[in-house]
Write a structure and sequence with these properties.
It contains 8 helices and 10 strands. The protein is α/β, with parallel strands linked by helices and about 240 residues long. It has one domain: 3-Layer(aba) Sandwich (Rossmann fold). The strands form 2 sheets. A 7-stranded parallel β-sheet has the order 1-10-9-6-2-3-5, sandwiched between helices. The chain binds 2-phosphoglycolic acid (PGA). 2-phosphoglycolic acid binds next to loops. The site of 2-phosphoglycolic acid has 6 residues, from loops.
Length: about 240
């Protein structure tokens, strides 16, 4: 794992954007793996800025997202479809039909999981996967205890995950209890993985990840089984390392 410690969230976001832009410059038909949450927001702002400045085009790029809540329609304000459209997709020239996010309201979720994994196999592998880490060590919505062999599947969200995401919902009852997520093995098929961790609240998970102990109880630790992972971490999230 390549570890790059950056001054702050802005520097981390800029560095992540540079890595994505390099990937697209190298391969205009790149397949990106995208994620939601607060951490990639700065990255998406830099990508939009770069696009508007004429640095990049996404016309031939394909993008896969990691996960979606179960039961939220695509146009629900809290769906990850809405998040991605508002935060990135509507602002760049990627073709909507080349963007893939699991469907959380499919009539058959079992079928949807199979279909998403087939899409990843057919259109992938993902060239560059952007990942955040949950405060419980999750990647995507692969909560502690998830098998490293998992493919796209349905999960029960941890209470800690629901609490972390409560800020986006009007009330606790509204926070979905289930989600669909790419599995750990689906994520590890990506050619390159860039993990973003920023802020004090990620300090303990960064410390745990860098202990190099691989265990099912800490899903991010499976990243040690991949040979092309870069961790971009800001000073606040790195502060407990070595202590
Ligand atoms: P965050 O979420 O970026 O909002 O902290 C990260 C994650 O849960 O993967």
């Amino acid at each position: 794992m390549n570890i790059i410690v950056l001054e702050d969230f802005d520097a981390l976001s800029e560095q992540a954007a540079q890595m994505v832009e390099e990937q697209i410059t190298k391969n205009s038909h790149a397949v990106l793996g995208l994620s939601t949450g607060s951490t990639p927001l700065g990255l998406y702002e830099y990508l939009i800025k770069g696009f508007k400045a004429g640095k990049t085009t996404y016309q031939n790029v394909t993008a896969f997202n990691l996960d979606e809540y179960l039961g939220l329609e695509k146009d629900h304000p809290n769906s990850y479809h809405t998040f991605m459209n508002e935060r990135l997709i509507n602002h760049i020239d990627i073709k909507q039909e080349n963007t893939y996010i699991p469907n959380g309201v499919s009539a058959s979720m079992e079928q949807e999981c199979k279909h998403y994994e087939e899409l990843l196999d057919t259109l992938g592998p993902i060239d560059l996967q952007i990942l955040g880490i949950g405060t419980n060590g999750h990647i995507g919505f692969n909560e502690p205890g998830t098998s490293p062999l998992s493919t796209t599947h349905i999960v029960n969200l941890d209470e800690t995950t629901r609490e972390s995401n409560a800020r986006f919902f009007k009330s606790n009852e509204e926070i979905p209890k289930h989600a669909i997520t790419m599995g750990i093995s689906s994520i590890l098929k990506s050619r390159q993985i860039v993990v973003l961790a920023a802020g004090e609240k990620k300090a303990h998970v960064v410390k745990k990840l860098l202990s190099k102990e691989v265990h099912e109880s800490f899903p991010a630790s499976w990243l040690w089984h991949h040979d092309n992972v870069t961790l971009l971490v800001d000073h606040e999230a790195y502060q407990l390392v070595g202590n």
